[in-house]
Amino acid sequence: MGLKNTRSGNYPEWYQNVINEADMAENSSSPGCMVIKPWGYGIWERIRDVFDEKIKETEHENCYFPMFIPLSFFQKEAEHVDGFAKEMAVVTHSRLSMKDGKLVPDSKLEEPLIVRPTSEAIIADSFSKWVKSYRDLPVLVNQWANVVRWEMRPRLFLRTREFLWQEGHTAHATAQEAETETKNMLEAYRDLCENTLAMPVLKGRKPEHEKFPGAVDTYCVEAMMQDGKALQAGTSHFLGQNFAKSANISFVNAQNQQEYAYTTSWGVSTRLIGGVIMTHADDEGMVVPPKIAPYQIVLLPLIKKPEDSTAVLAYVTKIQTELKKQFPFGEKIRIKVDKRDKAPADRFWEWTRKGAPIICEIGMRDVESGNVMVKERIKLGTPEGKQIMSAEAFIANIGSRLENIQQAMFDKAKKRLINNIRTDIKTPEDFRKYFSESNLWIEDNKQGKVAFVLGKWCGDPESEAILKELKITIRCIPFDQTKSEGICLLTGKPATIDVIYARSY
Amino acid sequence: MGLKNTRSGNYPEWYQNVINEADMAENSSSPGCMVIKPWGYGIWERIRDVFDEKIKETEHENCYFPMFIPLSFFQKEAEHVDGFAKEMAVVTHSRLSMKDGKLVPDSKLEEPLIVRPTSEAIIADSFSKWVKSYRDLPVLVNQWANVVRWEMRPRLFLRTREFLWQEGHTAHATAQEAETETKNMLEAYRDLCENTLAMPVLKGRKPEHEKFPGAVDTYCVEAMMQDGKALQAGTSHFLGQNFAKSANISFVNAQNQQEYAYTTSWGVSTRLIGGVIMTHADDEGMVVPPKIAPYQIVLLPLIKKPEDSTAVLAYVTKIQTELKKQFPFGEKIRIKVDKRDKAPADRFWEWTRKGAPIICEIGMRDVESGNVMVKERIKLGTPEGKQIMSAEAFIANIGSRLENIQQAMFDKAKKRLINNIRTDIKTPEDFRKYFSESNLWIEDNKQGKVAFVLGKWCGDPESEAILKELKITIRCIPFDQTKSEGICLLTGKPATIDVIYARSY
Predict the structure, then answer these.
(1) Which value does ipTM take for this structure?
(2) Boundary residue ending a domain (B252, B280, B308)
(3) What is the reported pLDDT for B98?
């Protein structure tokens, strides 16, 4: 009952199969855009709710800023920033008219509008009106919004022209306070990825050539997918006074002097769902961590004889009612009772492919014995994967069971990450040889293949050409540096900086 | 400490003052779009959370559909629907390029894309892929999204080019099931407006000429603002098979015949916040119903002598901690402690103009006596508006106090609505005379002016010209009809239909 494609067979096709079979999202008739379906959107809602709570705990407030940004806002940026992203949706007309029976754009705008690829420009403009004195600082806001980047090779969740995200924007009186904010939010992303998505990440700083245009420093969390590629899971930018100067966010400080504010921005998007898929899904389909599963438990009534129906459904309802009194992770439990008139095996496999953490099959025999058949998604196919136990015990321990599943998923992914950061490559030759080998799917290093390389980098501009040639990237400069002497794995020059090299999404 | 303008003095300016002084939203540098600031967005979050729960209780699931709709999707609609709204943002290019130092649109799209004014077209396209058999029905989805309509006279919350809303879309096997859905969701809107926003509404059906283009029937909830004008608070549409036919949403029914599905759509938007303002705000500023107040209680420590600071703050913290054990409306209580280094009177008036339901001033004297000074926003300026009471009693009764405020706000608005629906106008002459008088602000009918007229309508097309001439509209055909004979207040012809006539937003 597995997927058409396996991870080792055809990884990209497998990724598509997981999404289709779990019914999480699909391509839309709107080119390059996706429809996020209930199971996929439910996962996003969970991620959003968890992180939104963190945002508010840390004194940030939600706002909403316009999605249309006047073209002129990008003019200055374009002149000063060469890494300026130009692939954007441009609104040029505000009307449709019928000409010879055909609808055509009409009422040309005096100034074209850009659909936000990110909102630094338009938010800095508001900040400049809000901030007059040091008493107005810090400004700590966030918005949950849709953004558009004109991707040429769209892929569900990973790269779509429109996607959903959260973008935090803050302004501070001092550089130090802004840098602290930048790092605090990066840490909030690590916490989100590891403790909510069960997706381990590496924290670090981006090299100069990978920075967000306009940023002084870009920090990131990087995750390892099952094909050994890196996924940038979140970024946090210290923008210094760059945006403050171009938008004139200035204030009178305590010494009564005029100063420019220091700003930050940070975001995570629906791309995280792609990360969750490639961290946890297996050859049978999706596997969702309990903390973000739209349903943590699916109850499947099995009715063999019509006359059993009342008794079985009553028993299932009783179990559901009792489960609702439990609060795993200190939250309301999420349960689905799937009574659909469909073969039990079909319903079971449907929820298995969706990756529901726990599926309980409940038939007449269980009614009589007071039991339930408990199946854990992560133990599918193993002897412990099927447990018949008393409903009472199942209900009483549901919290710790879900916590154990969450922990086991994290531990497995963490082991994969640790086992697959290669540190023994010391020369450009070995490095080149390694990355010239095809990047097979890896599982706990079984095939002796590794994905990431932790090694030295000289930082010279010429090294960037070699990165391009080898089709790899520097994912980050980890926070803890050995400071040891070595040679650059790209140029062979003496180097002290430790970096993570990898292929990436 | 009131607003620059009063309701009776200059109502439109008053509305602006309320929003500015409560710091709920502002106009943006993006033409015709608004920035929703934390206090305004916090109110929207509360409305969203309450209605989202209702959506899920009623078996609807959240999805997300693309914001870009290919132009061709509107072609057929434009041909068949004359009421077709043409004011839309049109994306024609996907790139910005630098030409002679100026950024210009580049990479013209083969087909222009429309930024969704509403999503029937793109969602029907998905439904056509999802629905094959009667077993796939009903499809019950909703999305929370931003939409764009190119308003020429934007006003904060009421009419902005971009706004936020919820749009539900469903498909059913029978017309009856779809009509039931349409009416159930209209009832859900009435419940939201009356029991959450404390804003009484009239339920009814729109006349033919006010229907949503493409709908068989449009139902609505209409509220009365304090200037006697009507605000359409929400609409629910029975679309029959119109969209199903144009998008080919067809299915094999139980009798194994091919059929078109019946669809519905329904929505409410950030416009509701404009309705809340014009229902509850007064000449001192905003008044927010406790159920949607971002903060229900604001605690203001009053520190006259520095040496009192520790004791006062400790006492305030103790009260806050105790209040958090209370669950008004069965939810977490929302409290703000405002310790800002600002004159007490300034802090008090700031929260008064924001309309926080309860403000408590707490100083050293209260620490010693174990009291709090409690001020209710709706009793501002009255003798009962200030109550010194024991902290213990205040905390113990906070739930019922907030419930009473919520109820009192609804009752006051309900009385206004009831008192100001005029039913004694029987001739076109009186009707014309009535609406030719300027529509002064009304409060509980004091000035003997009324706003709505409940009267007869003949339904003839010629009557529409008279509506335009008098600058009024038929808000709805109320569900309960007298069926009595009378004469049309527009044409003087014999008429039996009862309608609500009013000026409107």
Answers:
(1) 0.95
(2) B280
(3) 87
